[in-house]
Amino acid sequence: MQSFRYIRAQNVEHAATLLQQQDGRARILAGGTDLIVALRERRLETDLVIDIKGIPEVDELTQNAEGLRIGAAVPCYRIYGNDSVVQHYPGLVDAASVIGGVQIQGRASLGGNLCNASPAADSIPALIVHHAICDIALPQTRRRVPVEEFCIAPGKTVLGRGEFLASLHLPPPPPGFGAAYLRFIPRNEMDIAVVGVGASVQLDESRRRIIAARIALGAVAPTPILVSAAGEALVGADVSEAAIARAAQIAQAAARPISDMRGTAEFRRHLVGVLTQRALNKAIERASRQTEQAA
Question: Which of 41, 63, 165, 221 allows an S-S link to 256, with CB 3.0 to 4.6 Å?
Fold first, then answer.
């Protein structure tokens, strides 16, 4: 591994200032499960590693009337180990529980998974369908960006000089809300998604009609994508196999997969249709249970 300096940031402003001073020659350490490997293999070079884990703001997981805030360094196991998060943000729990293996989940963070900007990242479709917003820190200010706009190319994000992801904010789920994330991998675990699909729905009080929906895809385009048209096609529709199949067809049309050693473009497009239908059915099932509990 190359040599580099290490600094434990005192607060958010300190970390952002260090980043700005290094002019692109610094890296943020949150979980480190990707960064340390990349540095060891010399796929990345840096002069400075800035450890943000000791900053309370980026290591806090809080839920209140304003929603859920996940610090960028919060490890995955704390997501699925929180009963309230499990109840209210099920799609996020689906994703956090399949990133790497159990050992990786003890260290890896959703913030790091997002900033890695892999087209196949498991967390990103789930974050998108939960309407997540990125809280980006600069030395003197903050800005907010929807998760679906955060990744701009494989391995690239909207983060500029002196900026880093401080936290993620998810609004409180409305009544009758349900979400799910599903993926296809060749192995049982510890693999990268060939296709990943996140879906969320909101049902009316009768549990028969969809009043809002979101569908997001991973591993089938240069970045994870929100398929707005697929969600919009479900709004106002009765819960039915026909409506779900129509949304799945729209999602398939929006996919832009490639062929590689892990699957052909045709196979990936087929999987988009299958997984979209399954994720929607799972989200609807969960939304129905939420509606029943509220009744």
Answer: 221
CB neighbours of 217 closer than 8 A, spacing ≥ 6? 125, 195, 196, 197, 198, 224, 225, 227, 251, 254, 255, 272, 276
Domains of the chain by residue range: 5-51, 56-170, 177-294
**70 in helix, strand or coil?**
strand
* pTM recorded for the entire structure: 0.94
What is the dotted CATH code of the domain comprising 177-294? 3.30.390.50
Q: Which of 272, 97, 98 is nearest to 197 (CA)?
A: 272
pLDDT (0 to 100) of residue 294: 56
**Mean pLDDT of the region 110-117:** 95
Paired with 212 in beta bridges are: 202
Contact partners, residue 181, CB within 8 Å, separation at least 6: 91, 92, 94, 95, 122, 125, 126, 129, 196, 197, 198, 199, 279
Instruction: Read off the pLDDT of each residue in 142-165 and give the average, rounded to a whole number.
Output: 96
Residue 293 has pLDDT above 70, yes or no: no
* 76 in Cβ contact with 98 (< 8 Å): no
Residue 109 is encoded by which pair of tokens? 């963070």
pLDDT exceeds cutoff 90 at 172: yes
8 Å CB contact between 187 and 173? no
Q: Give CA–CA dist 149/68, Å, rounded.
A: 20
Does the domain at 56-170 match CATH 2.60.40.10? Answer given as no
